[in-house]
Design goal:
The chain is an alpha+beta fold. It contains 6 helices and 13 strands. Strands 1, 2, 3, 4, 5, 6, 7, 8, 9, 10, 11, 12 and 13 form a 13-stranded mixed beta sheet that branches. Helix 1 packs across helix 2. The longest helix has 16 residues. It is globular.
């Protein structure tokens, strides 16, 4: 098998990965411009920081408020690929949220998810590719009940949570997955972790169809995905990236995932609540489940 991987800069995790970000904060204490240990020393140094952070529960990835962020998602298997850019904003108190999901393959494939602070419903705006799902451009559905909302379930941070879960799982499986740490002259810190491709699949960083997963054989399962967590001088997350190219079992794989915070969110980032005449109401859970079933069928074509 031939395997070739490359890294881009990176950042950000959550949930089980709060540990990674807490680790990042700990590593942020190194002086700017100071090279951290290499090789085995780096693994021991970063590993100690990581394990210390494992006891901390802060879900750093979901804590920032009044922020915008983006996630660029690209996965290619032979000549088949998906490429979506998800941008989001959250602002206000109580908080309103908007998520824009745009396919880079087909400009007609897009969805906007809007959760206003007020009211008991949230909204989904349907791009042209999904207009058969409802007679109006918007659908509404009840908000999840208070206390049942999982922070990582929000589409604005979901991919970062999955990436973080994969990094955490890679470390737990083999501490040597931590490949290095360095401090740059501008005070930023970078941690590099090799995530085995099987862990990427098992943690569903990308939810791939069975017909793709079933073609992953022993050669592809040896591949690793360099993942980089980049931290600002104050220890906060700057960027989280996973990127690799490799081949095996007669197939070629290329993937690139990049999550980052992009700025401060304001009310101008949010849409207005749509007029009732433009909204199809999904009044209960049964209607909501039927809608998402039909949506999944369209997306799976």
């Amino acid at each position: 098998m031939k395997t070739r991987a490359w890294t881009t800069r990176a950042a950000r995790t959550a949930g089980a990965v709060a540990a990674v970000l807490a680790l990042a904060t700990a590593c942020g204490q190194a002086r700017a411009g100071t090279a951290l240990p290499d090789g085995d020393q780096a693994a021991a140094y970063v590993g100690a920081k990581f394990e210390k952070a494992m006891s901390k529960l802060g879900d750093t990835i979901v804590e920032p408020r009044n922020v915008t962020n983006s996630a660029d998602r690209y996965f290619k298997f032979d000549d088949k690929y998906l490429h979506n850019i998800v941008t989001s904003a959250r602002t206000g108190s109580p908080e309103s949220r908007i998520v824009h999901n745009r396919s880079q393959k087909n400009p007609n494939e897009f969805l906007d998810s809007f959760t206003p602070a007020e009211g008991a419903v949230e909204y989904l705006y349907l791009g042209p590719a999904y207009k058969s799902l409802a007679p109006t451009p918007w659908v509404s559905m009840p908000k999840p009940e208070a206390g049942l909302i999982q922070p990582c379930a929000w589409a604005g941070v979901q991919i970062a949570c999955k990436m973080g879960d994969a990094v955490d799982s890679a470390y737990k499986a083999d501490k040597k997955a931590l490949r290095g740490a360095k401090s740059s002259a501008d005070g930023t810190e970078q941690l590099t972790v090799n995530v085995p491709f099987p862990i990427f699949l098992d943690r569903r960083v990308e939810l791939l169809p069975d017909k793709v997963v079933n073609q992953v054989g022993p050669e592809l399962r040896k591949a690793v995905i360099p993942s980089t967590i980049t931290l600002k001088p104050d220890g906060s997350l700057a960027e989280f990236t996973m990127a690799a190219k490799f081949e095996g079992d007669g197939h070629k794989v290329e993937l690139r995932y990049d999550f980052k915070f992009t700025g401060e969110a304001t009310s101008s980032d949010l849409p207005t609540v749509p007029d009732a005449s433009q909204v199809t109401v999904l009044a209960d859970d049964a209607a909501k489940q039927d809608f998402y079933r039909r949506l999944g069928e369209l997306q799976g074509r």
